[in-house]
Amino acid sequence: MKTPSLGFLFALIAISAGANDDWQLPCDLRETSHGSVCVCNSTYCDYLEQPQLTDISQIVVISSSKDGLRFKKTTGDISKGNPITIDDKPFTDENFKADAIVVDQERAWLQLANIPQSLFINASIRAYRISVKREQRFQNVSIFGGAFTGTVSYLLKELPAELQDHVYRSYFHALGIGYNTIRMSIGGSDFDMEPWAYNESPRNDLQLSNFTELDPRDLQKVEQLKRLKTIAKLGELKIMGAAWSAPTWMKSNGRWTGFGQLKSEYYQTWALYHLKFLELMRAKNMPIWAISTGNEPLNGVIGFFFVHFMSMGWTPWQQAIWLNDNLGPTIRNSAESKVLIFGNDDQRYTYPMWFRKMRSSRSNSLSYLDGLAVHWYWDELIGPQLIDQAHTDMPNKLLLNTESCIGDKPWQTHGPELGSWQRGESYMRAYTQDLTHHFNGWLDWNLVLDEQGGPNYVKNYVDAPIIVNATSRAEIYKQPIFYAIGHFSKFLPPDSVRIETRIENQLNPFTQLSAVGFQRPDGSVALIIYNGQNLPVDVALDDSQRGVIQLRLPPRSWHTVLYK
Fold first, then answer.
1. Which of 35, 210, 268, 316 places its Cα 20 to 30 Å from the Cα of 538?
2. Strands (DSSP E) along 80-195, which ranges?
3. What are the chain's domains?
């Protein structure tokens, strides 16, 4: 393990500010039973300075691969016309099995493969042409982040301060992957030590007389977020709030979970509950950027058979009434009127039906929505056409994926598969697909979890981009998921715009090659290319303004290509 002092590391950063080459601390790679991770301790963590394009002929390719590349930087000169080859160690493991669940960019389908690597040894390297048309512009992409749950707050508190800072820096600093947004629960969520809400007592309290200050759990988060902003050098941190459940006395079943909805006599009280949270957070200098109408409303209607954590059910008709008659007017007529409101906050399969039924209940209800919030959990089975239809119905609404993780399905390992490249590939395909279908950004689920995928009160164990060694409290592990996200979030600053990017000769729909492109605010281009095949591929980038750029990309790898 590399262990230079923090003072030495930041001396390097200071020196690098005047250097011509971009500064980098490489991944300290450790093999695991599922793949490999990058290890950080209190005195060392990997970072990459944002690559600078110094002239129009320069191209920079940032690469990560199953064979161990993590944000490897390769530079080239476009004007010379030479192919750019991304070096990767030989891919010769004949015991390797290729298995993946693949989501096509235009439809959902499953491809289950179990193919020995030896079958690929004599296969020819395929060539592809990717056309890039900067003149064809689509949506703005500005939001990337993750969830600061009770579990995250608890785990961070258990770590040494230096290691906490590495988590903050890795996610939110420009040297890390450039997050700018967090999602947090209003009250408790499934990733807390126990279910909880504000004003649990007194009961039947229409004016919420006991909701006068932040809960100690939220006060702890506020202090941690202040530290995060300092370490990451963030002038602004966007915070999105969402409630999992009202206090039990407001609900039809009187319980935290199960089949239960908000009692209609408490509709205005529940709107006031949200406003009080906004006011108290602003008083702590942590203003809320956006809220949603509630986390996964179908959990308390049809999901209660398998959902055993905090939830509260809504039908779209009920939610339209509450939004139109209570929440919308309460927020818009308050000092918090600029807070954005996102609707649905549930799975893709509810689109666009949810909003059409809301409109049928209260025709003006959707006017209170600034955006639409989607969770990714069934995207491997449900195609993106439903999102396209919702966007067609409401083209001026922001569109965010607001929750994602792996390990929630019955057929998946519940908890981390430490170092799993396949799980990283799932993220790479999902981000590519969503950003190709109108999304303005993506908020992942827990920033960190422990080795088991928790802790939480309901033993709902899943995976996360960074895993904390909660036993030693001396290390954190950056997984392939972290770098998959980073290939987007780090290199797409706010106000990047998607541009037309098309694989011209991809005749086989099962070919695991994808690309999505963006023009950044400085005019440069960022292309994210994923090669999920078990062989290298040759790619000819045909840019409408720069001509053809030749690349050779290694197997099972993803790349961010930067040029002017």
1. 35
2. 84-85, 97-98, 115-116, 126-141, 143-147, 181-185
3. 59-112+121-138+499-563 (2.60.40.1180), 140-496 (3.20.20.80)
